[in-house]
Write a structure and sequence with these properties.
about 200 residues; alpha/beta; Rossmann fold; 5-stranded parallel β-sheet; globular; Tol-interleuk_rcpt_adapt_Tirap; TIR_dom; TIRAP protein; Toll_tir_struct_dom_sf
Amino acid sequence: AGWFRRLLHKPKPSSAESTRSSSSSPSSSSSWSPASLPRSIRPSPVPDISAAGSARWAKSYDVCICHSAGDLELVSELVSYLEGQPESFRCFLQPRDAAPGSAVVTELCDAVQNSHTWVMLITPGFLGDPWCRYQMHQALVEAPAADGRAIPVLKDVDRRDYPKELRNLYYIYMALKESGFQRIRDTVLRYLQELCRSSVSGTE
């Protein structure tokens, strides 16, 4: 009788212990570690766009700002913002950087060709300025698929007036200046990082 009572009162293994013993089995399919993750889903390192030899230095400018004369004050603030960032973005601003005496067409084409990205500030003034539209068309000729190089920015323009030539591109809507500047900066930085990452992988 004594051995029968001891058998009835023998403590059962807790659920935590049984779970622990089953999960520690080498054949358990639920065990994994970060090291076992496929290589393809591990985050790739962020390239240093300022490093010597970076693909960033293959062109004279990081950003070409295309704008109407009436938006020069806003654009000057944008350029000061971008050039004051830790990355020290190099901006082409036509009134400041165009060579005196050069033909307007030559300067606009050179600015597009020698810049990694093009910010097009689309305002009522932009839509009515033939030189702005000319520069926009030059940018699209330079990179028909865009691939992030052309960055349309809408300000004080209804969405229905968005240029039909750019309808295949997402745009930034600048409702507030500060947030608009930040999004432009982030977009330019993302393109330059991808450019540098692609150039490094292409040489490996």
